[in-house]
């Protein structure tokens, strides 16, 4: 299994889901990630036990493990001078400093760019923020719900007209995880630049910028047409001029999605697969223009046909279908998907099964390791720094470390 960042040391001073998920990706890629947590309270994410309809009792906590797998945890109190010295000692030997702290907090705790570069001029300094590093709101915090989903334009774009309020994100840390992957990619690029030029970078990724990027096509189209992208009404067919681009219900009340953007190319093949080969010669569907004109009729034919079999039956039958299609699956059903299993997109990590980060190297999946218990590696990491036990005990007595 390939570990392209093996030997890279990352010092993570971050909380909740966004920036720690970047650390998780770097860990998947082989980096040694040391997570700094508050010496008493730890990462507040550890206290989130109720997420939506789920209540998590005991450990391991999937809400914590997803963004913290494979790391080592050290508890440090940065309000204590001795604690800040520990941070500087760790930074001296790190390749990357990764933080979610906002400008005022970074200044307060002495972990801003100049502070860290004073002890390690060559370090890559990576920041995750809600609203970006510039502008009058750069010191404002936020979460993926506020900065990514709402302000970034995603919520309004996916919410159909007439809906009271907005469509909510599909689950916890949706924008966090996407933004964290963006940040991990930026860090990897900065490491390449440093390797080639010797110049370290300051890397910035925000939830707001990632939200915009995720709907970049819509934003570009809206700017060009001077009007917002409007979500379709639920239950409506996906494309008004293409029956082969939309959702269809099956006999067991599941759904499958067709996305065949060249309907004339695939129409005859679909007709054969639904046992209606005569429709391939129907003049209503002779070419793209005819199909567009008679889309409503084609949609009705397909709805009736596809409603006649279960999703499992269609999955077997459509194995030879030339055009792109997919079953609609929920967050539990994906675990039974043979293609997901074949590519090892879900892997064991300690007692849990977690989603692997999406990049693979050399056609192999990363090794996922369980996330750390709070401050589980404090002594181990301090010993690696060369501190003896007398010094470690003194730091504990001073409240500098957990």
Give structural notes.
- With 402 residues, the chain is α/β, with parallel strands linked by helices.
- Helices cover 39% and strands 14% of the residues.
- The chain has 17 helices and 13 strands.
- The strands form four sheets. It has a six-stranded parallel β-sheet, sandwiched between helices. A three-stranded antiparallel β-sheet has the order 9-10-11, covered by helices on one side. Strands 3-4 form a two-stranded antiparallel sheet.
- The protein is elongated and about 85 Å long.
- The mean pLDDT is 95.
Question: What is shown here, in short?
Answer:
With 402 residues, the protein is of the alpha/beta class. Helix content is 39%, strand content 14%.
Features of the shown structure:
three-stranded antiparallel sheet; 402 residues; elongated; single chain; six-stranded parallel sheet; alpha/beta
Compute the CA-based radius of gyration.
Answer: 26 Å
Shape: elongated
Q: Output the structural class.
A: alpha/beta
Give the assembly state of these chains.
single chain
Distance between the termini: 34 Å
Topology readout:
Blueprint: E1 9-13, H1 18-28, E2 32-38, E3 50-51, E4 54-55, H2 62-68, E5 72-76, H3 81-92, E6 96-99, H4 103-109, H5 113-119, E7 124-129, H6 144-151, H7 154-158, H8 174-197, E8 202-206, H9 207-214, H10 216-225, E9 245-249, E10 255-259, H11 263-273, H12 288-293, H13 295-306, H14 311-317, E11 325-327, H15 338-342, E12 346-349, E13 352-355, H16 378-384, H17 389-397
Parallel strand pairs: 1-2, 1-6, 2-5, 6-7, 7-8
Antiparallel strand pairs: 3-4, 9-10, 10-11, 12-13
């Amino acid at each position: 299994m390939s570990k392209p960042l093996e030997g890279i040391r990352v010092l993570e001073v971050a909380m909740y889901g966004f920036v720690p998920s970047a650390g998780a990706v770097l860990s998947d890629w082989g980096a040694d990630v040391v997570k700094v947590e508050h010496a008493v309270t730890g990462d507040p994410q550890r206290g989130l036990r109720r997420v939506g309809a789920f209540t998590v009792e005991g450990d391991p906590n999937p809400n914590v493990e997803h963004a913290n797998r494979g790391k080592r945890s050290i508890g440090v109190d940065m309000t204590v001078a001795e604690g800040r010295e520990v941070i500087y000692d760790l930074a001296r030997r790190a390749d990357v400093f990764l933080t979610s702290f906002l400008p005022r907090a970074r200044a307060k705790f002495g972990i801003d760019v100049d502070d860290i570069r004073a002890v390690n001029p060559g370090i890559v300094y990576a920041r995750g923020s809600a609203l970006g590093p510039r502008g009058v709101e750069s010191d404002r915090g936020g979460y993926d719900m506020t900065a990514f989903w709402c302000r970034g334009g995603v919520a309004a774009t996916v919410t159909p007209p007439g809906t009271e309020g907005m469509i909510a994100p599909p689950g916890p840390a949706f924008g966090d995880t996407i933004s964290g992957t963006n940040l991990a990619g930026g860090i990897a690029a900065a490491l390449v630049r440093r390797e080639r030029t010797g110049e370290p970078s300051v890397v910035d990724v925000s939830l707001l910028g990632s939200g915009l990027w995720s709907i970049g096509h819509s934003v570009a189209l809206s700017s060009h047409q001077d009007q917002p992208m409007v979500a379709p009404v639920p239950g409506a067919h996906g494309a008004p001029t293409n029956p082969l681009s939309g959702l269809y219900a099956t006999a067991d009340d599941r759904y499958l999605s067709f996305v065949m953007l060249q309907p004339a190319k695939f129409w005859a093949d679909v007709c054969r697969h639904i046992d209606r080969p005569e429709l391939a010669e129907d003049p209503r569907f002779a070419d793209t223009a005819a199909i567009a004109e008679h889309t409503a009729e084609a949609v009705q034919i397909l709805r009736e046909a596809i409603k006649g079999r279960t999703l499992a039956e269609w999955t077997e039958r459509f194995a030879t279908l030339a055009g792109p299609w997919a079953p609609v699956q929920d967050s539990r059903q994906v675990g039974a998907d043979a293609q997901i299993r074949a590519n090892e997109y879900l892997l064991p990590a300690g007692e849990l099964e977690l989603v692997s980060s999406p990049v693979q190297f050399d056609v192999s999946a990363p090794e996922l390791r369980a996330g750390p218990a709070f401050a589980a590696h404090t002594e181990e990491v301090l010993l690696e720094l060369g501190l003896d036990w007398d010094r470690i005990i003194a730091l504990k007595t001073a409240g500098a470390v957990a």
